[in-house]
Amino acid sequence: MSIDLKQIDLLRERVNVSYEEAKEALEKNNGNLLDSIIYLEKTNKNTSKINKEKFTQSLNKYNNYKLTISKDGETILKLNLILSILIGLFTTPVSLLCILTALILKCEFKIINVPSPTTSCNESINLSKE
């Protein structure tokens, strides 16, 4: 059976693969779209789901870390580490000035792991829908 571009495009719409991988899967499955999707899932060529899972796992892992700034044992600031990094990236000159000022005032910087009762972003989203 000859494989045409329409079939390849249809497979690529459903599964995140290259043209070459889509063509190969269709050829191995005689142009059958469903069998090609199953083949790609079994050979782990569908990376979109895997990448989403890895991103969610990483986000959940680092979501419990907090940046704390304290002076004389009293906590001045406690922020989520991911949020701290984003603020630092988007406001670099101001952030550097604040860090320098805190260091001059002999503040202590710590990154601590504070486990939260909800560890999964997906669980949080599902709870809000109910």
Automatic annotation (TrEMBL):
Source organism, top-level taxon: Bacteria
Keywords, alphabetical: Membrane, Transmembrane, Transmembrane helix
Transmembrane segments: 81-105
Ranges for domain DUF4342: 52-111
Record keyword Transmembrane present: yes
InterPro entries xref list: DUF4342, UBA-like_sf
Designated name of the protein: DUF4342 domain-containing protein
Native organism: Anaeromicrobium sediminis
